[in-house]
Design goal:
The complex is a heterodimer of chains A (about 240) and B (about 600). Chain A has about 240 residues and is α/β, with parallel strands linked by helices. Chain A is built from six helices and nine strands, in the order H-H-E-H-E-H-E-H-E-H-E-E-E-E-E. Chain A is globular, with a radius of gyration of 19 Å. Chain B is elongated and about 110 Å long. Chain B has about 600 residues and is an alpha+beta fold. Chain B has 14 helices and 24 strands. In chain B, a hairpin with a 5-residue loop joins strand 19 and strand 20. Classes of the chains: A alpha/beta (about 240), B alpha+beta (about 600). Chains A and B meet through helix 3, helix 4, strand 3, helix 5 and strand 6 of A and helix 14, strand 16, strand 18 and strand 21 of B. Strand 3 of chain A pairs antiparallel with strand 16 of chain B, so a sheet runs across the interface.
C-alpha cells in the first residue's frame, strides 16, 4: 500500500472510531459539563468530557477502611464546583462532616439527610436525584432491588444529578442500572494513601480501565501512583486482607 | 412619648343589662352570681337596690328578704354570663377603634385575678387605647376624651377615663381617682363605696359609686370645666343623675408621679395579700410607697410590687394586648356525606388551599406553618403539620407537601370535616434570595422545594446542615442544624475557613458512635497497637500517625482523655483508633472509607 492509501485508511478508521464512540457513549446534554477531577489518570477512566451528569455510579469496596467513600466524595466535590449542592443520605449515621470539610466540601452547600428508617433511604435518594439544583448525591447503600434501582437511575437522568452509591463488592457481577461501576482497593504504600481503581462497568470505549492513584495526606489531591517521591514497596500478594 | 387612655366601665354587667333592657333602668336590680362556697350571692346591684340595703357579696336569700321588707318596689333578679360581658366589651372595643387603631386589654396576670367575693364579671370592664400622636386628630387629648365620653353616654354607657403615659398609671387613675373632690356638697349616705375585696375601712379618697350605669344621665353631652386640681392633671366633670362628678383625668407628660401619689396602693393592681400587708404597715397611698427604699420593697413583698410600681411610673415596660388578633387564614369544609377515598379528600384539601391562597396573596404574605385537620366520624381527629423553609402561597407546592404526608396517614374512619389553617405567616419574597453564594447551575427554588419535601416527610431533624464546632472532642466537633432553622446566610464571596483539621486525611469519613472496644493483640509499651482484631479479622499495622492527644471536657463532668492514632494496615486500609488514658483500653473510633 502506498502512503496516501494508508493515511486515508487511517482517517476512515479514526472517523469510524469516533462514530462508534459517539453511538456507544451516553448522549450528553448540550452545554452541561461532565465532571472532571483534575487528575488525568482518574479522568481517563471516563469519556473525554468528564463523567457525564445525570447518571448513577457505583463504588464497590470489599472491606472497610478502603477509600472508596473518600474518592467518591472527591468526585462529588468536583461535581458541585460550578454550583449546586451535595446531598449526603446517611442511613447508618456514620457520616462525619469534619472529614468532608477537610476534603474541601463546602459545608454551606452540604445537605445531610438522616432518614429515620431504612425504608426511607431510597425515597430520599429518589427525591434528591430528581432535583436539578443538586449536583451530586453521596450515599452508602447495601441493599437495592432492581425496580428501585431503575427508578433511581431515571431520577438521576431527569434531574441531571450525579448519583454516587457506595456498595459492597459482593454485588459485583450482578445486573445493575448504574452507568458506571468502580472497584476501589487500598494498597500498601510508604508515603501516601494508595488506591487502586478498576472500572468494572462503563459506557464507551475508553483508553484505560484501571488506574492506581494516591491521595495526598495534607492537601487531599489525587495523583497517579507512583507520584514523585513514592517508593514502590515490595509487591505483596493481592488478596492479603490481614 | 406614649399616651395610654384607660377606659373604665364600672359595673359593666349592669351597664350592659341597662343597655340591653332599658326597662330596667331606675329599678332595683340584682345580678345573681355564685359565691365562693357554692351558694348564690348578689354579684352586683343597682343604686335603687342599694338604697334598700342590698350590697354585693351578700347571700341572695338575705337580699331578697331585705327587698321584701322595704317593699318600695319589686326587685328584679337578673343573670348575666361573663362571656356575654366579654363579648359586649369586645364590641365596645371594636367601636372604640374610631378613636385609636390599638385597642386592647392589659396583659392578664395572676395578680389581677380576683380573690374573695369579687365576682369574675367585674374583671372585664377596662379597655385601653393607645392614643400616642392621635390627639391632633381630635383637637387635643381633651377633645378626644370629651368626644369619647359623649359618644359613650349617648349609647347609654357610663365610663371613667384617664390618660397618662403608662398603662398602669392610667388604670390606677381611672379606677381610683376621687370623683367628687371639687364638689362642695357633702357625700351622701348612698355614696359610701362598697365591695372591694380588701376588708379594711375605706378612706375618703377611694370611693366607688354604686351602679350609676342604670341611672339615666340628664345630659347627653359631657360638659363642665377642665379644672386642674393637682398640678398637671386636668379633670373633666360630667353631669349625671347623681350630680356632677369627675369623669376623666388627663395627666400632662412627666407628671405621672404626682398624679399617682395620692391614690391608694390598691390602684397598682397588687395581689390582695400584698395590699393587706401594706395596709397593716400603714402604707396607704402610692406616694408613701414610692418614697420607701426599693431594695427593701423587693425583699419584703417580692417582684410583683416593684414591677407594678415601675410599670405605673413608666420605668418598666408594659404592653397592650390588642383585642383584635391578627387575621386568620382558615378554610373549612363540612361534608354532608363522609368521604373515604383519598382522591376525594385530596380534592377537598386542594379547594381549601385555593381559598387560602386567595386570602394570602392580596396581603402579600406566605404560609410558614400550615396545619390540616381531618375530623372523622369515628375516632379522634387527625392533624397534619407542615413547616416550611420559605414562605409560600402556592397551592401546588402546599398540596404536594400535604400529599406526601397524606399518603402515610391512617384515618380512623370516613372524613366529615376538613379544616386547613395557616399558623405562621411571613412576607412573600418577591424574588428568590440567593441561598448559596455561588451562582451558576444553582436553582435555589428547586432546592428549597426539595428541602420542604424532605422535611415534610422526615421531620425537620431529618434534613440538616453540619456546622463545625471548635471542640477538641471529635464527637462534639460538629453539630447538625435543621435546615428549617438555619439562620440566614450572609452572602460571602470567599468560602469561610472553617476550623476543620488542616490535613485532608486527618479525620475518617465514618465515625462509630459509640466507639467500638478493640481486642488488641500486641502492644508496644506507650505506642500504638501492632495488631488488632476487627470485623473478625486480624489487622497488622504497618504505619501509624500520632499520638494525637485529646484532653477535654472536664467541665462537663466526665473528662475525656484519649490518645488518637491513625493507622494503616498491611493491605492499605486505614483506621482511627484511640487509647483511653484512664485505663489504657483501646477503641476503634472510625474508618477511612
Amino acid at each position: 500500500m502506498n502512503a496516501s492509501e494508508i493515511s486515508s485508511r487511517e482517517q476512515v478508521l479514526t472517523a469510524l472510531r469516533q462514530r462508534v464512540g459517539r453511538l456507544a457513549g451516553k448522549e450528553r446534554r448540550q452545554g452541561i459539563q461532565g465532571v472532571t477531577t483534575g487528575c488525568d489518570a482518574f479522568d481517563q477512566l471516563f469519556p473525554p468530557g468528564g463523567i457525564p451528569r445525570g447518571s448513577l455510579m457505583e463504588w464497590l469496596s470489599a472491606d472497610c477502611g478502603g477509600g472508596a467513600g473518600t474518592l467518591a466524595l472527591v468526585v462529588a466535590r468536583e461535581a458541585a464546583r460550578e454550583g449546586g449542592i451535595v446531598v449526603v443520605v446517611d442511613g447508618e449515621r456514620r457520616f462525619y462532616p469534619p472529614a468532608a470539610a477537610a476534603l474541601g466540601i463546602e459545608l454551606q452547600r452540604l445537605l445531610v439527610v438522616l432518614p429515620p428508617q431504612p425504608q426511607e433511604i431510597t425515597w430520599c435518594l429518589d427525591q434528591a436525584l430528581r432535583c436539578p439544583g443538586v449536583a451530586a448525591v453521596w450515599a452508602p447503600l447495601t441493599r437495592l432491588d432492581q425496580r428501585t434501582f431503575r427508578r433511581l437511575q431515571l431520577a438521576a437522568e431527569s434531574g441531571g444529578t450525579l448519583g454516587l452509591l457506595l456498595r459492597p463488592a459482593r454485588i459485583r457481577g450482578r445486573p445493575t442500572w448504574a452507568s458506571w461501576q468502580l472497584l476501589v482497593e487500598p494498597r500498601p504504600s510508604a508515603n501516601s494513601w494508595r488506591l487502586r481503581v478498576e472500572r468494572l462497568r462503563g459506557t464507551g470505549t475508553l483508553p484505560r480501565s484501571q488506574v492506581e492513584l494516591t491521595l495526598e495526606e495534607t492537601s487531599g489531591t489525587l495523583r497517579e501512583w507512583p507520584a514523585v517521591g513514592d517508593e514502590k514497596p515490595a509487591d505483596s500478594p493481592r488478596r492479603n486482607w490481614g | 412619648m406614649k399616651r395610654i387612655l384607660c377606659l373604665w366601665l364600672p359595673h359593666w354587667s349592669l351597664q350592659c343589662l341597662g343597655v340591653a333592657k332599658p326597662s330596667l333602668r331606675d329599678r332595683a336590680v340584682i345580678l345573681r352570681g355564685s359565691g365562693p362556697r357554692g351558694g348564690e350571692i348578689v354579684a352586683d346591684c343597682s343604686s335603687a337596690a342599694w338604697r334598700q340595703g342590698i350590697r354585693a357579696g351578700m347571700p341572695l336569700a338575705e337580699a331578697l328578704a331585705l327587698g321584701k321588707k322595704s317593699a318600695a318596689e319589686s326587685l328584679s333578679l337578673e343573670e348575666r354570663s361573663s362571656e356575654a360581658d366579654r363579648d359586649a366589651l369586645g364590641k365596645l372595643a371594636h367601636w372604640c377603634e374610631r378613636f385609636s387603631p390599638l385597642v386592647g386589654w392589659a396583659p392578664e396576670e395572676d395578680s389581677t385575678k380576683p380573690t374573695g367575693s369579687r365576682p369574675a364579671a367585674e374583671q372585664h370592664d377596662t379597655l385601653f387605647l393607645d392614643i400616642t400622636g392621635l390627639a391632633v386628630l381630635f383637637g387635643g387629648e381633651v377633645g378626644l376624651v370629651r368626644q369619647l365620653l359623649s359618644a359613650l353616654t349617648a349609647q347609654g354607657y357610663y365610663a371613667r377615663v384617664a390618660v397618662t403615659e403608662t398603662l398602669g398609671a392610667s388604670y390606677a387613675l381611672a379606677r381610683h381617682a376621687p370623683t367628687d373632690l371639687s364638689r362642695t356638697h357633702p357625700p351622701s349616705v348612698s355614696q359610701v363605696s362598697h365591695a372591694p375585696s380588701v376588708s379594711h375601712a375605706e378612706t375618703n379618697s377611694a370611693r366607688r359609686l354604686p351602679a350609676e350605669g342604670l341611672d339615666p344621665t340628664e345630659e347627653s353631652e359631657v360638659h363642665g370645666g377642665w379644672q386642674p386640681l393637682t398640678p398637671g392633671v386636668e379633670t373633666l366633670f360630667q353631669e349625671s343623675g347623681q350630680g356632677t362628678r369627675a369623669a376623666a383625668w388627663v395627666v400632662a407628660p412627666g407628671r405621672v408621679g404626682e398624679a399617682l401619689s395620692s391614690l391608694p396602693v390598691r390602684a397598682l393592681r397588687l395581689p390582695a395579700e400584698t395590699a393587706r400587708w401594706l395596709d397593716e404597715l400603714g402604707i396607704v397611698d402610692i406616694g408613701q410607697l414610692a418614697n420607701l427604699p426599693r431594695a427593701s420593697l423587693g425583699d419584703r413583698f417580692g417582684d410583683v410590687l416593684l414591677r407594678r410600681l415601675d410599670q405605673a411610673l413608666g420605668t418598666a415596660p408594659e404592653t397592650l394586648l390588642a383585642h383584635r388578633p391578627p387575621p386568620e387564614f382558615r378554610a373549612l369544609r363540612m361534608l354532608e356525606f363522609p368521604l373515604e377515598k383519598r382522591e376525594a379528600i385530596e380534592f377537598i384539601t386542594r379547594e381549601l388551599l385555593v381559598q387560602i391562597e386567595a386570602d394570602l396573596r392580596p396581603r402579600d404574605v406566605g404560609a410558614l406553618q400550615l396545619s390540616c385537620r381531618f375530623d372523622c366520624s369515628q375516632g379522634d381527629p387527625v392533624q397534619l403539620q407542615l413547616q416550611l423553609f420559605q414562605p409560600t402561597a402556592s397551592t401546588a407546592h402546599l398540596l404536594e407537601l400535604i400529599g406526601l404526608q397524606l399518603e402515610r396517614l391512617v384515618l380512623p374512619g370516613p372524613v366529615e370535616r376538613v379544616m386547613v389553617e395557616v399558623g405562621q405567616t411571613a412576607r412573600l419574597q418577591e424574588e428568590q434570595t440567593e441561598l448559596f453564594p455561588v451562582s451558576g447551575r444553582v436553582l435555589p427554588r428547586e432546592v428549597t422545594r426539595l428541602i420542604d419535601r424532605l422535611s415534610s416527610r422526615l421531620g425537620s431533624a431529618g434534613v440538616v446542615q453540619p456546622r463545625i464546632q471548635p471542640e477538641a472532642q471529635p464527637e462534639r466537633a460538629f453539630r447538625y442544624i435543621p435546615w428549617n432553622e438555619r439562620p440566614p446566610e450572609r452572602r460571602r464571596r470567599t468560602p469561610v475557613a472553617s476550623p476543620s483539621p488542616s490535613q485532608a486525611l486527618a479525620r475518617p469519613l465514618y465515625v462509630l458512635a459509640p466507639a467500638q472496644p478493640l481486642e488488641v493483640l500486641a502492644v508496644v509499651p506507650d505506642g500504638p497497637p501492632q495488631r488488632f482484631r476487627e470485623g473478625g479479622r486480624d489487622r497488622h499495622i504497618v504505619r501509624h500517625w500520632g499520638p494525637e492527644r485529646v484532653e477535654t471536657g472536664w467541665w462537663r463532668g466526665r473528662s475525656v482523655r484519649r490518645d488518637y492514632y491513625r493507622v494503616e494496615t498491611r493491605s492499605g486500609q486505614r483506621f482511627w483508633l484511640y487509647r483511653r488514658l484512664e485505663d489504657g483500653r483501646w477503641f476503634l473510633h472510625g474508618t477511612f472509607e
